[in-house]
Specification:
There is one protein chain. The chain is of the alpha+beta class. The protein has 4 domains: about 80 residues, RRM (RNA recognition motif) domain (Alpha-Beta Plaits), CATH 3.30.70; about 100 residues, no CATH class; about 80 residues; about 45 residues, no CATH class. It contains 8 helices and 13 strands. The strands form 4 sheets. Strands 2-3-1-5-4 form a 5-stranded antiparallel beta sheet. The radius of gyration is 63 Å and the shape is elongated. This is Ta11-like non-LTR retroelement protein. Pfam families: DUF4283.
């Protein structure tokens, strides 16, 4: 399956993407202007993709490198940026693969050859071509090379040039300079800015911060509601406890008069019993002398003789059982 997909991509190896900053002009005008500005050696096919992009299919590597390394052109007064195409192309993203100039200051004179520089810069990227002065060796201070680089990868600043095939320690460090490296944001995957200045990242972080703040506020509100419910329960428990205490107090207050009445009744009863006992003590039967008996009986005899009944005011004895019964009834 991988081999089949690779064969499919072979036909698109010289495909580029033209991206306009605004809506594209008419496709006929794009084709005409493009051909006039590029002066291609082979043919070209330009196809409309969407409102801001076109696909550009070239026929050979020379034309591909020539057009791609221009990076931009103006068509009908509108800027079109030229980017590399790859099988993983997505319209909402931009490729990190770009061509840049690499300067090799002080490169040994006998090394000004593409067959030497190409493997030398493998760690940097794919060598596309040398500039005209480097090819013609008309500038001895440095070699200037167009290299295809990946902006998401690190680029070396020095590289070792071995001058002896048998002894690799013999050689020199060659400095590498990069000219006009475009910015690339790994967050939104667009060229022109770094991640620290990405508006998409700032927007997403602000949205995330607000979401976290909202969740935190919701959690706090839920905690406050739980605390309020807990306080409400506690207050209800305290009110219930106070109510019980009040009821107990009122019950005690109601029982206290009853107890007081009971105590007063007991005191009154004891006092009445004491009075009755004193009365009983005073009315207890006592034996009387015969003289006193005769003196009390004499009026009765006289009354019988006369036919009248005189009831005495005092009994000679007291019925104790009767008195006790009266006391109990009291």
């Amino acid at each position: 399956m991988d081999d089949f997909m690779n064969k499919l991509t072979v036909d698109c190896k010289y495909t580029l993407i033209g991206k306009f900053s605004t809506t594209i002009p008419k496709i006929e005008l794009i084709r005409k202007s493009f051909i006039l500005q590029t002066q291609l050696n082979g043919g070209v096919n330009i196809a409309h993709y969407n409102a801001r992009r076109v696909f550009i299919d070239l026929e050979n590597e020379l034309d591909y490198n020539t057009v791609w390394t221009q990076q931009r052109m103006t068509i009908e007064g509108k800027l079109m940026r030229i980017q590399a195409w790859n099988p993983n192309f997505r319209p909402e993203e931009e490729t990190p693969i770009v061509p840049i100039w690499v300067l090799l200051q002080g490169l040994p004179w006998h090394c000004f050859k593409e067959e030497f520089i190409t493997p030398l810069l493998e760690l940097v990227g794919k060598v596309l071509y040398l500039d005209t002065t480097s090819i013609k060796r008309t500038r001895a201070t440095m070699a200037k090379v167009k290299v295809q680089v990946d902006l998401t990868k690190d680029r070396p600043r020095h590289i070792w040039i071995g001058l002896d095939e048998e002894d690799l320690s013999i050689g020199r460090w060659q400095s590498i300079e990069y000219e006009n490296i475009p910015h690339y944001c790994v967050y939104c995957k667009h060229q022109g800015h770094m991640i620290g200045d990405c508006n998409f990242k700032i927007r997403d972080e602000e949205f995330k911060r607000r979401k976290e703040l909202g969740a935190e506020m919701k959690h706090m509100n839920k905690g406050e509601q739980g605390q309020q419910r807990s306080d409400h329960k506690q207050n209800r428990a305290m009110e219930h406890e106070e109510q019980q205490h009040q009821n107990t107090k009122e019950g005690n207050n109601q029982q206290q008069p009853e107890q007081q009445k009971e105590e007063e009744w007991q005191v009154s009863r004891k006092r009445n019993n004491k009075i009755q006992e004193e009365k009983i003590h005073k009315t207890v039967w006592r034996p009387t002398s015969p003289h006193n008996k005769m003196s009390r009986e004499q009026p009765q005899i006289t009354a019988q003789q006369t036919g009248t009944l005189n009831i005495t005011n005092h009994n000679s004895f007291t019925n104790l059982n009767m008195q006790e019964k009266q006391i109990e009834d009291t």
